[in-house]
Write a structure and sequence with these properties.
Blueprint (H helix, E strand, L loop, with lengths): L2 E4 L1 E2 L6 H4 L5 E2 L2 E2 L5 E4 L9 E4 L5 E2 L13 E4 L8 E5 L14 E3 L15 E5 L7 E7 L8
Parallel strand pairs: 1-8, 2-5
Antiparallel strand pairs: 3-4, 5-6, 6-7, 8-9, 9-10, 11-12
Length: about 150
Amino acid sequence: KKRQTVRAATTANITIATALNNGDTLDGVALVTNDLVLVKDQSAPAGNGVYVVGVSPARYVEFDAYNDHPGATIVVQEGTVNADTAWVCTSNMGGTLGTTAIDFVASGAGDISGPVSSTDNAITRWDGTAGDTIQNSLATVDDNGTVN
């Protein structure tokens, strides 16, 4: 499947024709002509995809057919919200560009979270109640590898 790096990504629905022009700001990034942008939050998801910033923004040539999208991973380089995130297209093959929804989900997104800090040499464990949080345990491992 395809992998693409883009400069920025949307955080909400946009008007593509007027929000992806040279000098526009998207997620805190000042866009310039030829930047690649992941549009992932359209209220009509058939408009989602990778676009090229310009006077007349257009779908990037690598993603200008519907079947270019399913399974693709898009990595976002910059942004206040989306910097250093990855998005995977979860849509199925066989749709029609501009008609069928193109859906993206954050890669690795989920309910997993870790402790704010760790005791030196502490072993981490899953929360037994919620099951989705990593916590410190009372067990530790000393410098010789012995569990205490």
